[in-house]
Amino acid sequence: MISADILRGYTDTILLRRLADGPSYGYRISQEVRELSGGALELKEATLYTAFRRLEGSGAIRSWWGDEERGARRRYYELTDQGRARLRAECETWTDTRRILDTLLQEAAAQRQEEEEA
Amino acid sequence: MISADILRGYTDTILLRRLADGPSYGYRISQEVRELSGGALELKEATLYTAFRRLEGSGAIRSWWGDEERGARRRYYELTDQGRARLRAECETWTDTRRILDTLLQEAAAQRQEEEEA
DNA sequence: TTTAAGTACCTTGACACATGATGTATGTTG
DNA sequence: CAACATACATCATGTGTCAAGGTACTTAAA
Lengths: 118, 118
Known about the structure:
Two copies of one chain form a homodimer.
Chain A: H1 11-18, E1 24-25, H2 26-36, H3 45-57, E2 61-65, E3 75-79, H4 81-105, H5 109-117
Antiparallel strand pairs in A: 1-3, 2-3
Chain B binds a DNA duplex through helix 2 and helix 3.
């Protein structure tokens, strides 16, 4: 189980990506994240909704109340152009970050050797 | 330039890895990180030294003052067995995290199509 | 028919980590 | 002697995560 604390800084990006294919709402997104991560990542509600506020405040998404006639009310979210641009930028940052962390965490020579000998 | 905020949660792992090949000290490690990351990541001093305190407090590293006869004094750090175990565990967590984020940030079908057509 | 569980939203307070600012001290080089 | 590099350290502040708590509707089981 991966804590979102470790992904800190990527919660927003994950949400933006979930909205890239069209409008969605909180509960659904949290389910999708759980499923796509094979149960390893669960965005807690407090994290999720504060992230939505943050993203809306910065102009990356906009939202409205759905007009569900049955069941619980839902608030829908949608990417703005700015949000789409931000998603692109942050995906590139992820690529860089991944490469750098791979380099920085590369196994020690001794460890590699052990594995080669195994 | 990648903010360490984005790597938050990996500062400790990076430091543990820097100590995996033998004892070292703060200033040198911060230089190594800068070089290995191609200048993209700079561990700020405050971040560095609070991380050392944290790691020593949790028993992952131990430290001592060097006996430099010239130049500024240095505090050396070294992995404990516990630290070595923690490094292994956290490298595995990184592998998982990387895979999960890759999945979660995978480009949208529409975007992929655009690229294929390009 | 009550109860539990699922859907769906929200806020508050506590906590952890990163960092700008600031300080100490020594050594080297122009 | 001024500037820069080496080398350590702390404090206050900001930001993000999350446990805990709350609201309200729907469906299925007991």
